[in-house]
Specification:
The chain is built from 11 helices and 10 strands. With about 270 residues, the chain is of the alpha/beta class. Bound molecules: D-glutamic acid. D-glutamic acid binds next to α3. D-glutamic acid (DGL) binds next to α3.
């Protein structure tokens, strides 16, 4: 069982930020990534639609014989994780709980604990982060800001440009003025904007990267479930997409900082 791959899915390319962190801290694990590029974006779709897509994504990954599924997409984690856990009998990890753990750790000694979550329209409207934060610490003052233009900016490769900074200031200046202790980067693409975001937020605001936190939690979950692969064979990394692979490979190579050329088109 422990020799089986870990399945990771996202609405498209952005989940490669989670893939990259998992590959970094779990170098012995075989990974299978599914990017639902034919149906991206999830961030503007309804909970019912995103849940239906997420169920199909997990069914596909199960055919790849995965031992565990990481829901790398924040919108899918917000809308569909509970339904997936009811439907499937294998360990499933979303990105919200790890992001919440990281945020609470970074404000542990602070008072007040003002946390802003930034994400897609769907993630913010779902209130999933705010609910999870308050459930674990009722002294947290949580708010959410949807930043829908960040995804196309990242996919354009404009991670740290004047335009990106202007857009970020337009979304976040008001909230930053009220004072903040932490900002959760609650979307797959946002870790790539850390340079811009840390500059406008300033050094006192901790930026919480849910991709990094999720990789850490994945390692803990594998250990807990006895699923860690301890073989030292070179790991296999497979990539599947539901649209043609060219754009995924081009933008994905920027995100992974290596050539990505082995993505395959699948119908799910
Ligand atoms: N992967 C999505 C997320 O993390 C962003 C892109 C989309 O809207 O599908 O919420």
């Amino acid at each position: 069982m422990s020799r089986r791959p870990i399945g990771i899915f996202d609405s498209g390319i952005g989940g490669l930020t989670v893939f990259k962190e998992i590959a970094k801290i779990l170098p012995n694990e075989d990974l299978v990534y599914l990017g639902d590029t034919a149906r991206v974006p999830y961030g503007t779709k309804s909970a019912a639609t995103v849940t239906r897509y997420a169920v199909q994504n997990v069914r596909f990954l199960l055919r790849e014989n995965v031992k565990l599924v990481i829901v790398a997409c924040n919108t899918a984690s917000a809308f569909a994780l509970e339904a997936l856990r009811r439907e499937f009998d294998l360990p499933l990890l979303g990105v919200i709980e790890p992001g919440v753990t990281g945020a609470l750790r970074s404000v542990a000694s602070k008072n007040p604990k003002r946390i802003v979550v930034i994400g897609t329209e769907g993630t913010i409207a779902s209130e999933a982060y705010g609910r999870a934060l308050r459930q674990r610490d009722d002294s947290v003052d949580a708010k959410g800001v949807a930043c829908p233009l960040f995804v196309p900016l990242v996919e354009e490769g404009w991670w740290d440009t004047e335009v990106t900074e202007k857009v970020a200031r337009t979304y976040l200046d008001e909230t930053l003025k009220t004072g903040l202790e932490a900002m959760i980067l609650g979307c797959t693409h946002y870790p790539l904007l850390k340079g811009t975001l840390s500059r406008i937020a300033g050094p006192r605001v901790a930026l919480v990267d849910s991709a990094e936190e999720t990789a850490r939690e994945t390692a803990v979950l594998l250990e807990k479930e006895g699923l860690k692969n301890s073989s030292y064979a070179a790991p296999s990394h497979k990539f599947y997409v539901t649209d043609s692979p060219e754009r995924f490979q081009r933008v994905g190579s920027m995100i992974l900082e290596r050539t990505l050329s082995n993505a395959h088109h699948v119908e799910i």
